[in-house]
Design brief:
By secondary structure, the chain is of the alpha+beta class. It contains 2 helices and 8 strands. Strands 1-2-3-4-5-6-7-8 form an 8-stranded antiparallel β-barrel.
Length: 205
């Protein structure tokens, strides 16, 4: 083979190898992009929070909420249970009953409501009018007591959430506290004109 032919052959081979290297580089880049696309497709897509079904964007009508609260809690019985926690130990729940004859907002006192109540638990049975603060968490009322002294019962701190026909919360009396929960039932109204007083629902068996 002549020198010129050998040189031509070397140049041709060098050009061929450069082409292969360029092709290899392009292939690596393409595979890298493809791999990234595949990983992105496999990863769970983050979605922006969506508003819950039925949740309105309109501002809450506080007057309507307070009107409903007064209607729903007038002439009702809170029937449920309370537990007692002392020194970190919780005793089994016991039955409790609170009869509320009437609820109305106290004029000129923000968040203050008058509860005309009958409190029954254990051997205690008292009828007491109570002025209690009611705070609102959105559309949910929370009866709020902080170091409130109730005649014949003592001083209590409590938070009781009301939603629908259920209630739940916590209570504290000195070093003793616990939980309370149950259902809210309307007092049975007598037939019109029979002269009888409203009666509370029968005690659960």
């Amino acid at each position: 083979m002549t020198w010129r032919a050998r040189r031509f052959s070397e140049l041709k081979w060098e050009s061929f190898m450069k082409s292969r290297l360029r092709f290899g580089s392009v292939t690596v880049i393409a595979l890298g992009i493809l791999s990234s696309v595949c990983r992105a497709a496999d990863e769970p897509k983050s979605t922006s929070p969506t508003r819950a079904a039925g949740q309105s964007e309109a501002p809450l009508d506080q007057a309507a909420l307070e009107k409903k609260f007064a209607e729903d809690l007038s002439g009702v019985v809170f029937t449920g249970n309370y537990s007692v926690t002392t020194l970190g130990k919780e005793k089994p729940a016991e039955m409790e009953k609170y009869t509320i004859a009437r609820v109305s907002k106290v004029k000129d006192k923000e968040d203050s409501w008058l509860f005309v109540t009958r409190i029954q638990y254990g051997k205690t049975d008292l009828e007491i009018p109570l002025t209690l603060p009611v705070k609102w968490a959105g559309d949910t009322p929370v009866i709020t007591l902080t170091n409130l002294t109730i005649p014949a019962l003592g001083t209590f701190t409590s938070r009781v959430m009301i939603y629908g026909d259920r209630y739940a919360g916590t209570w504290q009396h000195g070093k003793t506290g616990g939980h309370l929960w149950g259902k809210i039932e309307k007092i049975e109204q007598p037939a019109q004109g029979d002269g009888k007083s409203p009666t509370a629902p029968a005690d659960p068996k």
